[in-house]
Amino acid sequence: MTNIWTIIQYFILGLVQGVTEPIPISSSGHIMIFRQLFGIETPGLSFEIFVNFASLLAILIIFREDIIRLIKNGWLYITKKDEAAKSDFRFIIYLVVATIPVGVIGVLFGDAIAELINANAMNVVGVTLLITAAAVWMIRNLRGKKNDGDLTRKDAIIVGFAQAIAVTPGISRSGATIVASMLVGMRQETALRFSFLLYIPVSLGTSILEIPNIIQDPTFSTLWIPYVVAFITAFIASYFALKWFMNVMAKGNLRYFSYYCIVVGLLVIFFL
């Protein structure tokens, strides 16, 4: 029988995942930090993928209107060549283009990344958190002008490569894609939407591919209650964290995330 402390630990891990996934401070890096603090060893990426799916569900709910509009207008343009729907169709194409780099990186280096995470390479997390801090600091005052219909294939490729770099623990996925989006001139709202809609195919594809490993994971079979607790917690926390972050983006207060990553990165380097 699972003891209460184990459930509390996984509740905290789910909370950490949920809070840190939408904001630019690296959920993977924070999960590694708390796993190290708790002495939890989970082979492979099953747990990370499992709680990431909870965050995905929250993002799907928040962006459901955008998703429905894109699907509707994308289909309308394909079937009827409706010019009014062309902008949304192109947006979908750019999301597909931006997804390709991380897919290639995942296929080529997925095992190496899993080994890095399992090795609890805290020195790597500390350094990459500092890199995340520097990247977020660069765009703290940027105010782009590009809307959804102004994006180009080049923009999509640049953001796609930024997302591919973020497979490294400690490099924030949302941070990397938002930084890249704003560097190519997107408005805050457009950068936020492109970043999180881009998260959907990557997270969904990874979750589907990982289903057999999750089912066969011995840790899941013995700790399914803590896993479920972490999943529910991650879902709720992701929903409210993203809602909060959308307000932060609108006000342009990104520098505080940079300060935070500097502090945590240095603490990890010197004490973990």
TrEMBL record:
Annotated transmembrane regions: 44-63, 91-109, 121-139, 196-215, 221-242, 254-271
Reaction equation(s) it catalyzes: di-trans,octa-cis-undecaprenyl diphosphate + H2O = di-trans,octa-cis-undecaprenyl phosphate + phosphate + H(+)
Recorded superkingdom: Bacteria
Subcellular location field: Cell membrane
EC number: 3.6.1.27
Keywords attached to this entry: Antibiotic resistance, Cell membrane, Cell shape, Cell wall biogenesis/degradation, Hydrolase, Membrane, Peptidoglycan synthesis, Transmembrane, Transmembrane helix
The protein's role, per its UniProt record: Catalyzes the dephosphorylation of undecaprenyl diphosphate (UPP). Confers resistance to bacitracin.
PANTHER family assigned: UNDECAPRENYL-DIPHOSPHATASE
Note: Bacitracin is thought to be involved in the inhibition of peptidoglycan synthesis by sequestering undecaprenyl diphosphate, thereby reducing the pool of lipid carrier available.
Protein name, as recorded: Undecaprenyl-diphosphatase
Provenance organism: Oceanobacillus longus
Gene: uppP
